[in-house]
Design a protein that fits this description.
The protein is α+β, with helices and mostly antiparallel strands. The protein contains 11 helices and 10 strands. The radius of gyration is 21 Å and the shape is globular.
Length: 296
């Protein structure tokens, strides 16, 4: 089983274009938490300004990969302005957290260092410049693919050193995730999971928590609730869902669902069906912003 593909399927990765075009001032983002961002700078210079962090200056065509904890403004630094394609990424409506990517700081990938992604970037830019029907949908799909490729590259190059995607590179932990995902109904304990990893209980627990920022059993519970959400959407009865994700009774499952998700299963399903969602990212361009202005 390709556990990484299953992860993206189960968590419903969604890329969404929220700004595209020329920018000759400062791009101010108003974003909810729990997202990651990609900015494709195809022309011009950009300064990324963040509170308490040194300015990042981009002087050539580049891709910026930004974590959800990164609050910033993008300022045009060239006379001719810049050309941007900006997208937000989240793991589905009402997605459970945490499913950490392990991206701690903004990564900058100049186009010249992305030789194997040149066709993809070219297609992305051409689609952006074209006004053909379905443009926004095509851009979102291309950006999602770019997201997966950048995550994969970042893990391989050691730029992401925590989170699930990093853990899957560790043979011991990868076997643990495979079993959890294949058998969510199993009576898992920390001892059983540590045995799968061929580690002592204490060493396994410390290692897992350090990499995932969640305890082993916390991850098991969170994954079970994510599967439960998918089954609820499919119309499966709650008592069947309870058994499918490892609970001996509907009552115990519903209590856990309430504690993790924040509302009972039936109420959550109504909210999900009604389309309640995280507020969209909004962006506006400020022009003639003083150089010494502080970022919001």
């Amino acid at each position: 089983m390709d556990i990484l593909s299953e992860f993206f399927e189960r968590t419903h990765l969604q890329g969404r274009l929220f700004f595209a075009g020329p920018m000759d001032g400062t791009l101010v983002l108003d974003k909810p938490p729990g997202m990651a961002f990609i900015h494709v700078i195809s022309r011009g210079g950009i300064d990324m300004v963040q509170p308490g962090v040194p300015k990042i200056s981009i002087t050539e065509p580049s891709v910026l990969f930004c974590p959800s904890s990164c609050r910033y403004q993008l300022r045009s630094s060239s006379v001719e302005g810049a050309e941007l394609i900006c997208a937000s990424f989240q793991f589905g409506r009402n997605a459970l957290q945490p499913f950490p990517l392990g991206l701690k700081q903004t990564l900058v990938f100049p186009f010249r260092e992305l030789d194997n992604l040149t066709p993809l970037l070219g297609t992305l830019i051409n689609e952006f410049q074209d006004q053909a029907p379905g443009r926004s949908k095509a851009l979102n799909l291309l950006l999602e693919y770019l997201f997966v490729r950048l995550v994969r590259r970042s893990v391989m190059e050691g730029k992401i050193a925590s989170g699930l995607l990093y853990a899957l590179q560790d043979g011991r932990l990868a076997s643990v995730f495979n079993r959890i995902h294949q058998e969510p109904e199993a009576l898992w304990t920390v001892e059983k999971l540590a045995h799968l990893a061929n580690m002592s209980r204490s060493k396994f627990s410390a290692c897992f928590t350090r990499i995932m920022d969640i305890s082993p059993m916390g991850y098991v519970t969170t994954w079970r609730m994510k599967l439960a959400q998918d089954l609820l959407r499919d119309g499966v009865q709650i008592k069947v869902i309870a058994a499918s994700v490892g609970y001996s009774s509907q009552a115990s499952f519903s209590r856990t669902f309430l504690n993790v998700v924040g509302c009972p299963p039936a109420e959550w399903l109504k909210r999900d069906a009604s389309g309640e969602d995280v507020p969209p990212v909004t962006a506006r361009v400020q022009r003639d912003l003083p150089d010494d202005s502080s970022p919001h």
